[in-house]
Amino acid sequence: MKFNRLLPVFCNLFSAVLVWSAEPVPLPESTPWDVEALSRAPAYEWVAKEGKVKSLTYRGLPYKGKATS
């Protein structure tokens, strides 16, 4: 009876060990993203700095040749 109660615990522990011991998936040689450009913060402008809630806008990538913000 006690074994039946502990079986799910042992199964979960065994599954966790299998997941943690698995080899990570290797990263591809290249990615479709410009990681350097993504790591730089975009230009931004504060709209409201007063109060508890502050808002800002930032420049996004152009979409169909038009600027986004």
List the helices and strands and how they pair.
Elements (H helix, E strand, L loop, with lengths): L1 H20 L13 H5 L4 E5 L6 E4 L11
Antiparallel strand pairs: 1-2
As a whole number of angstroms, the C-alpha radius of gyration is: 25 Å
Work out the oligomeric state of the chains in this entry.
single chain
Number of helices: 2
What is the terminal-to-terminal distance? 64 Å
Q: State the share of residues found in helices, binned by percent.
A: 25-40%
Q: What's the pLDDT, averaged over the residues?
A: 84
SSE sequence, one letter per element: HHEE
Can you describe this structure?
- The structure is a single chain.
- This protein is an alpha+beta fold and 69 residues long.
- It has one domain.
- Helices cover 36% and strands 13% of the residues.
- The protein is built from two helices and two strands; from the N terminus they run ααββ.
- The protein has a two-stranded antiparallel sheet with strand order 1-2.
- The termini are far apart.
- The mean pLDDT is 84.
